[in-house]
Amino acid sequence: MDLIASGELETATRANQIRTLQRAGATRWSSHFTSVSRLIDMFGSTCTLLEHMINGGLNSNIRGEAKGEYKEMRTFEFVFILLLLHKVLGISDMICQALQMKSQDILNALNFVSTTKMLLQNLRENGWNAFFKSVVSFCERHDIDMPNMCARYMEGRRHQKDNITSEQHYHFNIFNVVIDFQLMELNNRFTDQTIELLTLSSALNPVNRFNSFDIDAICTLAKNFYPQDFSQNEIGDLSRQLEHYKFDVVCSSEFQNITSLSELCRRLVETRRSEHFFLIDRLIRLVLTLPVSTATTERAFSAMKLIKTSLRSKMEDVFLANCLVVYVEREITDTIDLDSIIDEFDAVKTRKTKLR
Known about the structure:
By secondary structure, the protein is an all-alpha fold. The protein has 19 helices and two strands.
């Protein structure tokens, strides 16, 4: 009721009004945005809870920690950074969620990278005034003291060595620096070479009736990025196979409704066209190994905590990897008949112990 009265929650039919702070996950990128959003939504309630802990904590340690947290949360700098994180992580949240999908389209991933960079750059160049107004509004709503933005910036009890105002400090030393760091991270993770690789790989994408199909781009992909897998003679053979592939597969109604590379690869095998277009099939399989999505990696990290416990701390890497494969790909392993595995293992050699 306090949250509704303070305006932190809105009432609605069938609305879930239960709110708790959420811990940021170690592998789920978007969980950080959720954590920051929850803290902003429950800022007033969190401060009230800390006040109760200060006055009625079980011991001095709890009361002292609560007092320190409360004092920090009530500062302008904390609020400024909190709202800035919410803004930046909110812009990046779309690409975070997209990359966490189990199956992600390469072109969509590239589009999200480009739009995220443009939004961050626009925020840096044109978003300061609107963002600062939101910070001021938040501080006024929660009775948080604001510094004189025109005065010289104070760090602790002493003046900053550089003769800058508080507004300049928050604008250029925090606001711009945080955005620049985020842009730098995106540029480091998605380098020009990576973008070129993904762009060329999209030429194999069967989405929209092979709208991106490009023989030259596919040959360039094999030549520049997979020189160990394709010889010079095979590059020429690949080009000739692609010319036949264009009319036999790309223009075939049998392949028009395919929506992913993995589905295309399966269809080529089912129709035995992979035997004729074996170089194209090889290239598609290589492209399928590109880690566009982080979903499998995140599931592996989560599974590792369940498999390698304190009681199994001496588990060797090979055995751990095998266990992880079985657990992570349980959709496949669940379809395997355990009795057939036992029979095959028993048939390898005569054993003293009967398995059945």
